[in-house]
Design a protein that fits this description.
By secondary structure, the protein is mostly helical. It is globular and about 30 Å long. It is built from 2 helices and no strands. The relative contact order is 0.17. Helix 1 runs antiparallel to helix 2. The two termini are 21 Å apart.
């Protein structure tokens, strides 16, 4: 993913829903949280992630 500009709130919610369905709530929380933090750092905007 070259930029994170197009990956907005709706996309985060959809990805989270898919993760919950596949891995369950507890595992999805960690998986999605880490992914969002990693993506924000990669995009050069770690301040956009509110852990």
């Amino acid at each position: 993913m070259a930029t994170a500009e197009w990956f907005g709130h709706r996309q985060h919610v959809h990805l989270t829903w898919l993760a919950v369905r596949r891995y369950g709530t507890a595992a999805a929380v960690g998986l999605i949280g880490e992914g969002i933090q990693r993506t924000a750092r990669y995009a050069g905007a770690p301040q956009k992630c509110n852990p």
